[in-house]
Write a structure and sequence with these properties.
The complex is a heterodimer. Chain A is α+β, with helices and mostly antiparallel strands. Chain A has one domain (5-139): Heat Shock Protein 90 (2-Layer Sandwich). Chain A contains 5 helices and 5 strands. In chain A, strand 2 (60-67) and strand 3 (71-78) form a beta hairpin. In chain A, helix 1 (21-32) packs antiparallel against helix 2 (37-58) and helix 2 (37-58) runs antiparallel to helix 5 (111-118). The radius of gyration of chain A is 14 Å and the shape is globular. Chain B is globular, with a radius of gyration of 12 Å. Chain B has one domain (3-107): 3-Layer(aba) Sandwich (Udp-n-acetylmuramoylalanyl-d-glutamate--2,6- Diaminopimelate Ligase, Chain: A, domain 1), CATH 3.40.1390.20. The longest helix of chain B has 10 residues, at 78-87. In chain B, helix 3 runs parallel beside helix 4 (78-87). A 5-stranded mixed β-sheet of chain B has the order 1-5-4-3-2, with helices on both faces. The chains are: A alpha+beta, B alpha/beta. Chain A binds chain B through residues 16-20, 23-24, 27, 37, 41, 44-45, 48-49, 52, 102, 104-111, 113-114, and chain B through 32-36, 38-39, 51, 53-56, 58-59, 61-64, 79, 87. The complex binds adenosine-5'-triphosphate and magnesium ion. Adenosine-5'-triphosphate binds at residues 49, 53-54, 57-58, 78, 80-83, 89, 94-97, 106-112, 132 of chain A.
Chain lengths: 140, 115
């Protein structure tokens, strides 16, 4: 791959049932590109966690995936409420998810730390009242 | 153990993925929290769950799992089954409860740890 490939998806914040569609699609694209399964799995889990977060915490957003010679970059951008205390949000078990989210199988406060664990680089840029952009990179 | 063995041990009904019944699996996990599955599971091929929504199938797909067993007689709707079909995941439903279903599989040799 000499130049980079870019994929872009709109993540619908109104529909919990469709959350994760972008991640499923990316997984298919990466398989077709012949990327190593272990790399695909890391990208899939990190992106899916982030996509679910955009739906349950931020009312949706845009997911962008860039594939180049060095690895895969995932950029998740929303215009939700933002994260007031990023350090706290990164702690395992910290969650502001309401009970209805928990009854859907999420809201254990494991997503952000898991995204960090599965990626080589992760950066959260968030402003309260403006939105959140999370950039992650998985190297080959 | 094959998916077909799981079907027999749990008196389960196969809702999709008949073609995968002879596939071999080595470990499984049971949880109603997809957050925990995403965070703690590694290389388990089978998910037993009492949760019923499309995210169960997507979580399984992200984790490269090949079989989902819905316990407590939960019957997934067509949307969920269709999603599983597209993802190449076998879906079973069993009337057993979580503790019993996991116990039966575990004592029959399906372990909780990844290889
Ligand atoms: N995109 C986002 N916009 C606003 N807040 C967010 C966003 N992502 C995460 N958060 C905040 O950070 C907290 C921790 O997120 P994390 O993904 O770790 O846990 P969770 O989503 O609550 O539960 P889990 O991921 O285990 O299902 C959330 O509860 C929420 O308060
Ligand atoms: Mg989360």
């Amino acid at each position: 791959m000499s130049d980079s490939l870019n994929f872009s998806y709109t993540v619908d914040g109104e529909n919990f049932a469709s959350a994760g569609q972008a991640s499923v699609q990316v997984k298919k694209e990466l398989r077709q590109l012949g990327i190593a399964p272990e790399t695909i799995r890391r990208v899939s889990i990190a992106m899916y966690e982030g996509e679910i977060n955009m739906v349950i915490h931020a009312g949706g957003g845009v997911a962008q995936v860039n594939v180049d010679d060095s690895g895969i970059e995932i950029v998740l951008k929303d215009e939700g409420p933002g994260i007031a205390n990023i350090e706290q949000a990164m702690q395992e078990g910290f969650s502001t998810a309401p009970d209805n989210v928990r009854s859907l199988g999420f809201g254990a406060g494991m997503g952000l730390p898991n995204m960090k664990r599965y990626t080589d680089e992760m950066h959260i840029d968030s402003t309260v009242g403006v939105g959140t952009t999370i950039t992650m990179k998985v190297n080959y | 153990m094959t998916i077909n063995d799981i079907k027999n041990y749990l008196d389960a009904e196969v809702l999709c993925g008949e073609e995968f019944l002879e596939k071999e699996v080595f470990s499984a996990c049971g949880s109603d929290m997809m957050s925990d599955v995403l965070a703690y599971v590694k290389d388990q091929a089978v998910l037993l769950t009492g949760l019923m929504n499309t995210q169960v199938i997507r979580t399984a797909e992200m984790m490269d799992m090949i079989c989902v067993v819905f316990i407590r007689n939960k019957k997934p709707n067509e949307e969920i089954i269709e999603l599983a079909r597209e993802s190449g995941i076998a879906v079973l439903t069993s009337s057993k409860r979580m503790y019993e279903a996991c116990g039966i599989l575990y004592s029959s040799g399906l372990c909780g740890k990844a290889e």
